[in-house]
Amino acid sequence: MKRIKLWDKEFEISIPYTDIQLAVKQMAEKMKNDLEGKETLFICILNGAFMFASELMKELDLNDAEISFMKLASYTGTSSTGTVKELIGLNEVITGRTVVILEDIVDTGHTIKGVIEQVIYNGAADVKIATLLFKPEALKVDLKLDYVGIVIPNDFIVGFGLDYDRRGRNFKDIYTLVKV
Ligand code: IMP
Ligand code: MG
């Protein structure tokens, strides 16, 4: 099994890129049916969702889609702090629009809940959530996820955009923390 070391911790490959690609393709197919002709605004949640958003956008060929970014942070080390800091906000007018939020992973759900509230507050007509990864065992809020790529156990992972203290985002496969 391929391993990587980031800072003090070791991680073992758990989801190869080919599985990620397949999951994203399936999400894209479902989205195309739902969103055709809707002038959708996709909001990629930085930093973690950048690879997912890029992969998904290449699979979706919607003529009237737009993409924008929000930057949020809630994690320190390997656990969620529960407070979500907004580092870059939304500039787009979203009143009356169909918005799809693109997230790397839903863990406790606090981050995505905060984003949904803000998007609704700003007048979006319809808000959908697309997350590449979902840890159902960690979920602490009431949430409806419209598009889920891969359901995973409650372990800490890195790669394909996800980091451990700023490192590991660059890997195309996903790795799970090796418990010692
Ligand atoms: P939540 O607010 O607890 O749902 O956490 C969501 C955010 O925490 C995600 O957008 C990720 O950036 C980060 N996160 C959650 N789980 C992991 C993980 O296993 N590895 C790396 N980052 C994670
Ligand atoms: Mg994130």
Task: Describe the protein's architecture and organization.
Helix content is 23%, strand content 37%. It has 180 residues and is α/β, with parallel strands linked by helices. The protein has a six-stranded mixed sheet. β3, α2 and β4 form a beta-alpha-beta unit. The mean pLDDT is 93. The structure holds inosinic acid and magnesium ion (MG). Magnesium ion binds next to β6. Inosinic acid binds next to β4, β6, α3 and β9.
How is this fold's topology laid out?
Elements: E1 3-6, E2 9-15, H1 17-35, E3 41-46, H2 50-59, E4 66-76, E5 79-88, E6 98-106, H3 110-121, E7 126-134, E8 147-151, E9 157-158, E10 174-177
Parallel strand pairs: 3-4, 3-6, 6-7, 7-8
Antiparallel strand pairs: 1-2, 2-10, 4-5, 9-10
Helix pairs in contact: 1-2
The structure holds inosinic acid and magnesium ion.
Residues 48, 74-75, 80, 103-111, 156-158, 162-163 line the site of inosinic acid.
Q: What's the CATH architecture name?
A: 3-Layer(aba) Sandwich
Number of domains in the coordinates? 1
Q: Which range does the strand content fall in?
A: 35-45%
At the third CATH level, what is the topology name? Rossmann fold
Largest sheet: 6 strands, mixed
Question: Helix/strand/pairing class, anyone?
Answer: alpha/beta
The span between the termini is 16 Å
Low-confidence stretches: none
User: Reading side by side through the largest sheet, how are the strands ordered?
Assistant: 5-4-3-6-7-8
Number of DSSP strands?
Answer: 10
Oligomer: single chain
Total of DSSP H or I helical runs spanning 4+ residues = 3
Q: Tell me the radius of gyration.
A: 16 Å
